[in-house]
Amino acid sequence: MAEQRSLPVPEGLEGERLDAALSRLFGFSRTRAAELIVAGDVLVDGSLAAKSDRVHGGAWLEVTLPPPPVAPMPVAEPIPGMKIVYEDDDIVVVNKPIGVAAHPTTGWTGQTVIGGLLGTGHRVSTSGAAERQGIVHRLDANTTGAMVVAKSEHAYSHLKRAFKERTVEKHYHALVQGHPDPSRGTVDAPIDRHPSGDGRWAVVAGGKDSITHYDTIEAFRAASLLDVKLETGRTHQIRVHMSALHHPCVGDLMYGADPTLSARLGITRQWLHAVSLAFEHPSTGEWITFTTEYPEDLSHALKVLGGES
């Protein structure tokens, strides 16, 4: 059911465009705000307005918000390229392949880790929203590597808390353009949605605290292989932070990677792999570590670079 919201424009938004003001007030993108305005779902002092109109403090906004989209349920189907790294009664650790999302979301029609596990007869926790049961953390669809899924309710609660309290150790390998200086460092820069509303994220003042530690493993002529440790787990965090340093992940065209280099290395997505995951076992309390191998496309890119250096 649609939701009606009525409120005055805060004085701090005096002079802002209507679409920008709505974005800041309700937390959705300017693109979504513009869609609502064009659809006639936004009134300013009782009248329809254009997205470029400037708002005035104290003006009365009436907004009709559509019901939130319902995420699709996972489709149970085996994923041949998804390898089980470890499994017991509490957890299952997979090496997630390229092009597979963690769980279904609105707009994603491809394969998911949850669907792949269900499709091969694995049990997952029933905790969490129906479309992402058992999911305690996520990887981007085109980021490969280690991912743990909870099978028991106890494991779900334990691991959700561990990720929230940042006691899980997550290491990634990232191939970035150029050579970061210094070769080892920390990026401490807040991240939020990109102001353009185009689906990207960015370093934004007032965003969520985001901390990335990196260390150079090997420097090639045109790129550097980094070991990256995440202290926080924001969406696209490594990709955004490396781009902010002007060393985007090779192949990551969304965040400014050179398409010529990407093509030469045969990379069609960001060169980013979750190489290891370590945490306290939910039942035994033992500290356990899992590592995963690079997929073929990432290994091939390194071989090409190695041959050029």
Automatic annotation (TrEMBL):
Coiled coil: none annotated. GO terms for biological process: enzyme-directed rRNA pseudouridine synthesis. One of its GO terms (molecular function) is RNA binding. SMART domains: S4. SUPFAM superfamilies: Alpha-L RNA-binding motif (SSF55174), Pseudouridine synthase (SSF55120). Gene3D superfamilies: Pseudouridine synthase, RNA-binding S4 domain. Keywords: Isomerase, RNA-binding. Responsible for synthesis of pseudouridine from uracil. Belongs to the pseudouridine synthase RluA family. PANTHER family: MITOCHONDRIAL RNA PSEUDOURIDINE SYNTHASE, RIBOSOMAL LARGE SUBUNIT PSEUDOURIDINE SYNTHASE D. This is Pseudouridine synthase. It comes from Streptosporangium subroseum.
